[in-house]
Structure formats: C-alpha cells, structure tokens
Amino acid sequence: MKIRDLDLSPSPLNAEHQALGLPPVDDFVSHPANHPVLRAAVWFASLTLIGLLLLLAWRLFFGDHGSSGLEIIESTLNNPVFWSALAVGFLAQAIDGALGMAYGITATTFLLSSGASPAAASASVHIAEVFTTGLSGISHAKLGNVNKSLFLRLLLPGIIGAVLGAVVITQFDGKLLKPFISAYLLLMGLYILAKAYRHLSKPKEPKHIAKLALFGGFVDAAGGGGWGPVVTTTLIGSGSDPRTTIGSVNFAEFFLTIASATSFILLAGQPSTWVMVAGLVLGGLFAAPFAALLCKKIPAKILMTIVGCLITLISTYNLYTSLS
Description:
Layout: H1 12-20, H2 36-62, H3 69-77, H4 80-99, H5 103-113, H6 118-142, H7 148-170, H8 174-197, H9 209-223, H10 227-237, H11 242-268, H12 271-285, H13 288-297, H14 300-323
Helix pairs in contact: 2-6, 4-5, 4-12, 4-13, 5-6, 5-14, 6-11, 6-12, 7-9, 7-11, 8-14, 9-10, 10-11
C-alpha cells in the first residue's frame, strides 16, 4: 500500500475521488500522534522491519544453503519466475499507488494466471506486503492519520481472520481451491467496476467493525487480497473520516499481514515463493513515479474501469481453465 498523506481540499480531483468512494489525493499533512498504544505499535513495526531485513541479509550471505549470496542473486536474476513477479509487482503497485487499493487483488490475479498455486500466490503477495504495509503504517501513525479506537477495533478480528484464511488456503489442494479463488477475484473485479459507476448513498455511521475486519482479514489471506477494497471502502462509504480511516486500516493491515505471512511460512513454505517475493518487492520499488503519473494523467473512473475489466477478464480465464 502506498504511503498516503491526504489533501482534503475541495479540488476537482478530490471531488471525483469522493464521488467514487476512493481515498483523497496525496499532499503533505502533519498531525503528530502521541498516544502510548500507537507509539508501542510504531516501535514494534519499526523493530520488526529492521529485524526482518537483518535476518534476510544474514540468511543470504551466511546461511547454510550450499551457495554464496552472490550465486543466489545470480540464479535469481536468471530465473524467469523472478522477472514475471517483478512485472506483476510493478503493475500492482502502480495501480495501488493511483487508486489507494487493489495491490493484493491485482498481484494475486496475475500470479494465478502465470501458473502459481493459490497458496504460493497469496503467500508471495503477503510476505512482500509486510514491508510496504509496515512503512505505510508507520508513516500514517507518525503523521497522526491513525485513530486509536478504530485501529484497535480492527486489529484483533483482522488478525484472526487472516490466520483463518491462511489455514484454509494451505490445508486444501491448490487445484481444488483455484476455481473458488478465481471466482472471488472475478467478483472483486466486478465490484471495482461497480464502484466506478455507482452513485453513493447518504453516508451512515459504520457498524459491526469487528465483523467487517474478521471478514476482510479472511478474504484477504484466502483470496490473496481484498482488505482495502472490503474494509476501507466500506468504512469510507458509510461516513467515516477518510484520513483517519485510511491510516487506521493501513496500520492494522501491517499486523494482519505479519500474521498471515507467518502462517503461510509455517504451513506452506515453498521454495518458489521467495523468488516471487523478491520480484514483487523490487517491482513495487520502481512503480511509485508511474503511479503518480497515472493518478495525474488518467481520471480515477477510467483507471478503475481498466483495472476492473482486467481483473475480471483474467479471473474469468483462470476460472475457465481451472474448471475445464
């Protein structure tokens, strides 16, 4: 998820985003947060990211895997799976950076079409998202974009849902699950299309946040994406403040992503997953300038239509091939 500093001014672009139920556009916002719970969460996220980077570096250059770190890097660069994942990560992050959602859905859809199993695709996406959601969540908390009450109400149910989703997708045969995952992604593609052309009803006070977080965490892990489209858009569409909603949902996403990624590693660690993860992360690093260009040059409604059609068509093809 892209780090989003939100501009709430009544600009034409913001008006378009509001009409479509999308997050506001980006600008510099500074609202320092000083709550002990959020400070503890920020420290935990920061130390977790630093620890993971050090662990990965140690395993790469000093781990007992029979090859030097440079040899592993060379073999990864010669692996076509890496370059496919890099292209997917680039496209998914460009879309997410322009719309503020749909990274997981886009990445998982393309990984499934490239032949990855549902568990491998979802695991790759969530392990890669640990770093992006961590940086995003920390920035939101430091900028004061996190509502402590909403964050805590989303946190535990979201984690429980993510773990349950990871368990479900790893305990069943990938060929058996692929039609269901493709059908879910097809529905999400149609949902994005519907968002582009629907008329928003009068906002209402959000209810059943814990149930929403439980469902969002489950479908995010089991389907490879959906936390943002399910949780963020529902809360904003029901009248919640966009800035604090986006910040709180993004920061909570880091913790449920940690939970789901850990579950995937413990339950279904697959060698090809790490090559996919490296491609997704590096592809996403280069996508930020293009995401800004997409957001500036292409109207949000058109971009949502393109993304919705793309996901719908690929998911339909995946569903057809898995059933034939």
